[in-house]
Specification:
The longest helix is centred in the last third of the chain and has 30 residues. This protein is mainly α. The protein starts with a helix and ends with a helix. α12 runs antiparallel to α13. It is built from 13 helices and no strands. It folds into 2 domains: about 180 residues, no CATH class; about 55 residues. It is found in: Cell membrane. Pfam families: AzlC (PF03591). Keywords: Cell membrane, Membrane, Transmembrane, Transmembrane helix, Transport.
Length: about 240
């Protein structure tokens, strides 16, 4: 692997991650505002973002804490929201599993929606890349995303309630997830999981403590797995003929 190739792959990753800046800035700023409104200090808010680095889980935990939900429910809900990270890790293992332990640990920390979405597509398109090249691309995607997540969490925490309500920073949340999810709905299993999650979340919205979201996620994973299983069975039957 030449230096030129490494640099080229690095800048590919930076360019692919850069568009997410448009939503990462308001998203992280909004979290800073919400966290301080919930009673966290600026330092606690920054620590939360650095340690967890998972926007959806952070918003879920803070919102539940604001509503005086039992701590056990808060932890279970945040973990449930982040269950997708386990699936991300399993999906990335064939590509990054050969890396050194410290590299895999670092990759695990920076496995967020954006780094996964960009990397899994690029890895599938570039099967000849070495583990080192894949790691270069993966970490490069994080370069324009993660530092800004930390920085603007602090900005949001500092300015707090001074932000006018009319600014409507919360638009960043749905836009971020639409930008990530839409390109990845490539199979029937993906579409089935997405549809089941949406319908179940709406139907079960009456449940307390946002438990409807937890149930919707579980049902979506079950639906996707079942569609995938049936697709594999049909493929096997066709191969036998």
């Amino acid at each position: 692997m030449t230096t030129e190739t490494t640099k080229s792959i690095f800048w590919q990753g930076v360019r692919d991650g850069a568009p997410f800046i448009l939503v990462i800035i308001p998203f992280s700023t909004l979290f800073g505002v919400v966290a301080t409104e919930a009673g966290l200090s600026v330092f606690e808010t920054l620590t939360f973002s650095v340690l967890v680095i998972a926007g959806a889980a952070q918003f879920t935990a803070v919102e539940l804490l604001r509503n005086d939900v039992p701590t056990v429910i808060v932890l279970i809900s945040a973990l449930a929201v982040n269950l997708r990270m386990a699936m991300y890790s399993a999906s990335l293992t064939p590509y990054l599993g050969g890396a050194r332990l410290w590299q895999r640990a670092l990759a695990a920390y920076f496995t967020v929606d954006q780094t996964y979405a960009c990397s899994i597509v690029k890895f599938e398109q570039s099967p000849d890349w070495t583990v080192g090249q894949r790691l270069t691309y993966f970490f490069a995607v994080a370069v324009p995303i993660c530092p800004l997540w930390y920085a603007f969490t602090v900005v949001g925490a500092v300015i707090g309630s001074a932000i006018p309500e009319g600014l409507a920073l919360d638009f960043a949340i749905p836009i971020t997830f639409l930008a990530i999810i839409a390109p990845m709905l490539r199979t029937r299993a993906h579409v089935a999981a997405a549809l089941v999650s949406v319908v179940a979340a709406l139907v079960l919205a009456f449940l307390p403590y946002n438990l409807g979201l937890l149930a919707a996620g579980i049902l979506a994973m079950m639906a996707g797995a079942e569609v995938e299983r049936r697709a594999e069975q049909r493929a096997e039957r066709r191969a036998e003929k």
